[in-house]
Amino acid sequence: MIAPAMAFFVVFAIIPLAVAVYLSFTQWDAISDPTFVGLANWTSVLGDPVTIRSLWLTLQIIVVSWLVQTPISILLGAWTAGQQRNRAVLGAVFFLPLIFSSAAIAIAFKAILDPNFGLSASLGLPFLKQDWLGNQQLVLYVVIFIIAWQFVPFHTLLYQGGVRQIPASLYEAASIDGAGRVQQFFRITLPQLRYTVVTSSTLMVVGSLTYFDVIFVLTGGVPSNGTKILPILMYVTGFSANEFGPASVMAMILVVIGLVLALLLTKLSGFTKMTSQQEGA
Amino acid sequence: MTHSTPSIRRTLRRTAVAAGLVAALFGVSACSSGSGAATGGATLWGLTGADEDNVLTPSLKDWNADNDDAQVKATYFQNDAYKTKIRTAVGAGSAPTIIYSWAGGTLDSYVKAGKVEDLTSDTEDIKGKFLESVWDQGVVDGKTYAVPMNATTPIMFYWNKDVLDKAGVDEPKTWDDVLAAVPKLKKAGVAPFAVAGASKWPLLMWEEYLVDRVAGPEAFNKVMAGEKDAWSDPGIIKANEMIQELVDAGGFVDGFSSVTADSNADIALLYTGKAAMMLQGAWVVPTITQQAPKFAENGLGYGTFPSVEGGKGDPSNIVGNPSGYFSISSAASEDQQEAAKEYLTEGVFDDGYVDRMVESGQVPPIKDIDDKVQASGGDFGATVYDLTKNAENFQMSWDQALPPAQATALLSNLDQLFSGAIDAEEFSDAMNKTIGK
């Protein structure tokens, strides 16, 4: 059973990774033959303030995205888990952004936020008249908002499933003991959801780390490198500047950080010791 | 033991299926590599848009009908997608027979790696019909590796006549006029200049013209020659200070760093009257004509970049794209190369080719076609042709002329210069570090 999976994994993951490791020690412009340069790419990339800045931006996106998306997703997930019809209908509506393509979302938001022809200009709403994508202080948060808009539905779905798995008997016992809805949420729903939180957070953190498409279409890294997160810097270095050596170094940095974060999250959350919390299982 | 035999057989079968799949994948990628050696004819990769619609498709239709022995088969790509695809294909030896490029740094790297053919002797006879400044871009170290294949598109200075009239401003002829016009236009409630800052390369047009007007072509020639600290030329620093002065005076439209060129938002600012003037390539005029035909006919003014008092650059100098170029891949078979050479010397820029271009408002880089351009290319075509023909110096856009690594750094630093994150000195320091990359 494992052979086909292994074959695909080797061809599409291990071999490219090995080639990237090799390229990170060479100078290569995709035209002539690679020349070995030792650690030169590594020292130049790690010593470049632009790399440090993009790492810092990436970190901000990871942390703020998690802080924004997790509470909203848990609350929406718990709410849509109810069986009432209006919740089912609204749940379906909330789900919509998830089925749009990232490029379409980015193009749509770019048009809406355009300072000259966007929503503020066409509706004449002065409080919306901001240079949302051109203001260095603002643009990162605008990007984080759009990412949240796109991905909250997915995490809501995870939490909805998680909440629906919690046995009704727990809530019945709690209401007999006189616990209100708020108490039930904090004493039963949240603790029961902790493995879902781990899954959702891992996806969120590792996903934010390699986030690319919406930001690339929306801003391409401008203004003033204000949204040039590491994956975009890597793309520009590789495919615009044709410096595949330094770009491979950046790819390796992303791989290492991604692995470390994923391992840390599973370790800290006791993923390996996970057992069912439910009766009879 | 009886039940393990089928399971072994199953495993074997699965392994075989997996191996087959992997083989199929490699097979697919092998088939998709571009040279298409099996067919014999030459292959060509070009760009979608005007090149495909008005130039190459009709030309190849005629060519292939008349030349059974030199068939050319074209595939077209969108601009940005082409840039990455062609580089990988050339590097891997699976390039099409006829390679499109913008010459400059990319062509240099092809030549250095021995990826394109020397066309010097094959093109000796046709060389004379091209404008010299345009032809020379395809020459590397005295040998011709690329021949012009499409319109010449210098960067032009555009204005909205109505907006300027209403604000009581004449179109600027000098940099002082530009600075004097800014407060008047702002008072009239319009942005003086539209510029697509989010796309970054439109910012470069300002840099190219101002450096040329202030310091002449020599300043950038030093950069191209890789001279140490070439970016610290006093002319370049002066030009960058002028740019920041214009930004600080509110010369560019509010939020210009989120305006993109690929959505034509900068053009829309001009024809909707939200902005008074714009610096852009000659290639935007067909788009303006399409989106705002009335404005294109009556409201659009155009000319060359204003002069700078006391500057060293000749005001007839222009910058922009001299042309697009075709080279022939060294990886192609001999038959393919022969077919390609025939097409490049006899098919490209034959009479029909030139006529179709002129009729669609494009300006071919060909000598002595003033009458044709005047007759069917209209005033804009004639202006572009005259500017190109009479230019003391035609500077290729810096992002094409420089090697890709330096060009990318240049655009990134310009974005920071225009947004005020760095000043003129810091710009020069950052760019000096890229010399020789």
From TrEMBL, chain A:
CDD domains: TM_PBP2
Annotated ranges, domain ABC transmembrane type-1: 55-265
Membrane topology per record: Multi-pass membrane protein
BP GO terms, sorted: transmembrane transport
Keyword Secreted: no
Organism: Neobacillus citreus
Family: Belongs to the binding-protein-dependent transport system permease family.
Domain of life: Bacteria
Gene Ontology CC annotations of this record: plasma membrane
Pfam family of the protein (one): BPD_transp_1
Location in the cell: Cell membrane
Signal peptide interval: none
Name of the featured protein: Sugar ABC transporter permease
UniProt keywords, alphabetically: Cell membrane, Membrane, Transmembrane, Transmembrane helix, Transport
Annotated SUPFAM superfamilies: MetI-like
Transmembrane segments: 7-25, 55-76, 88-113, 138-159, 203-224, 244-265
Main location: membrane
